[in-house]
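Title: Comparing notes on inverse folding

I've been comparing how different people in this forum approach sequence design from structure. To keep things fair, I'm posting one structure and asking everyone to reply with a full sequence. Here's the target:
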């Protein structure tokens, strides 16, 4: 008996922002963004929050699973942009789905969070006796990016994705690899707001509370981490790269995938790519891609798939599983 993905769901906000829309208030162009990143459009939340988007993606995954809310034993939400710190985003999601009682928490490993969340959930399913877990990735990146910084804001979008994990007779998760190396230069940085108190003048406000990034350094890290992660999860599972039907990479920049494909000697069509439509949705990136691929009929039972993510920290994670 393995731990497998039973169903998926996703939610993308209605508002679609094109590269040309961004060029109306930034010194940029559709040509620059498309050739440097592969991104054409992104969804931006209007009136939605990380909790509401997460709840919608989760509700879809739950409905497709055929399970009732009281069959969910564990709820984890992966997010870098929680709309609340108390209660947890996962508690809001759980409340929206009327899941009466379940272990519930949020995690933040930046864009690697969803893979970490699945790994944590599968360990807890093995040790705590849980049968079904709801894993959500949801991010409102539009709230944490600096809309005047053209080198970062064009890269991100908002959205949520979800997956239900269950114990069944498939092999499910075959191997995983989680890592985080020291980010010596804060290549990806975003601080929480800190206000002065009656006891301290210390404050963190303004630009430091928005995402800043050394793009080329992050790109170098991503390509390196990608390659290492693929080698480790395939070796651990005793699987060859050619046996894998589809790879779901974190959707950060199409050029990272071109480099990875070249380095690994594989065709680009081995990667599921939706970055042109949704951009980088942080923790939601992988579950959105999984859900779109599943609804497009690109996944069939028994397929071997790989998930790979990297992000701030500098964190990375990969997982090999049977669909
Ligand atoms: N439109 C037009 N010009 C832009 C621009 C934009 N949106 N953003 C940056 N530029 C400019 C820069 O100011 C720079 O100008 P300069 O040469 O006059 O200083 C020039 O374009 C080249 O910038 P550079 O940083 O060398 O480009 P790049 O090829 O490295 O691409 C990124 C920049 C950000 C697209 C790329 O580095 C990247 O995607 N990195 C990885 C990011 C990532 O994966 N982040 C998420 C991790 S979870």
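Reply #1:
Here's my take.
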């Amino acid at each position: 008996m393995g731990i497998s993905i039973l169903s998926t769901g996703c939610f993308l906000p209605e508002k679609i922002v094109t590269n040309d829309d961004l060029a109306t208030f930034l010194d940029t162009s559709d040509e620059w963004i498309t050739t440097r990143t592969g991104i054409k459009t992104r969804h931006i939340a209007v009136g939605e929050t990380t909790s509401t988007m997460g709840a919608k993606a989760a509700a879809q995954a739950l409905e497709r699973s055929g399970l009732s809310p009281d069959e969910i034993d564990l709820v984890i939400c992966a997010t870098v942009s929680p709309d609340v710190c108390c209660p947890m985003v996962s508690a809001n999601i759980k409340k929206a789905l009327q899941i009466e009682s379940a272990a519930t928490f949020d995690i933040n490993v930046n864009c690697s969070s969803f893979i970490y969340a699945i790994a944590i959930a599968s360990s807890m399913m093995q040790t705590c006796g849980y049968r079904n877990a709801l894993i959500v990735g949801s991010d409102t990146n539009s709230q944490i990016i600096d809309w005047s910084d053209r080198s970062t804001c064009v890269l991100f979008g908002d959205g949520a994705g979800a997956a239900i994990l269950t114990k069944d007779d498939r092999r499910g998760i075959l191997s995983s690899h989680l890592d985080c190396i020291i980010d010596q230069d804060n290549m990806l940085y975003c601080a929480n707001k800190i206000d002065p108190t009656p006891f301290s003048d210390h404050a963190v406000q303004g630009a430091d509370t928005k995402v800043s990034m050394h793009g080329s350094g992050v790109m170098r890290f991503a390509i390196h981490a990608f390659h290492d992660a693929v080698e480790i999860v395939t070796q651990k599972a005793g699987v060859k790269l050619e046996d894998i039907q589809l790879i779901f990479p974190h959707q950060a920049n199409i050029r990272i995938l071109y480099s990875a494909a070249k380095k690994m000697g594989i065709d680009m069509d081995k990667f599921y790519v939706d970055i042109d439509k949704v951009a980088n949705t942080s923790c939601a990136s992988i579950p959105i891609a999984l859900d779109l691929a599943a609804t497009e009929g690109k996944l069939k039972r028994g397929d071997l798939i790989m998930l790979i993510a990297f992000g701030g920290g500098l964190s990375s994670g990969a997982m090999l599983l049977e669909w």
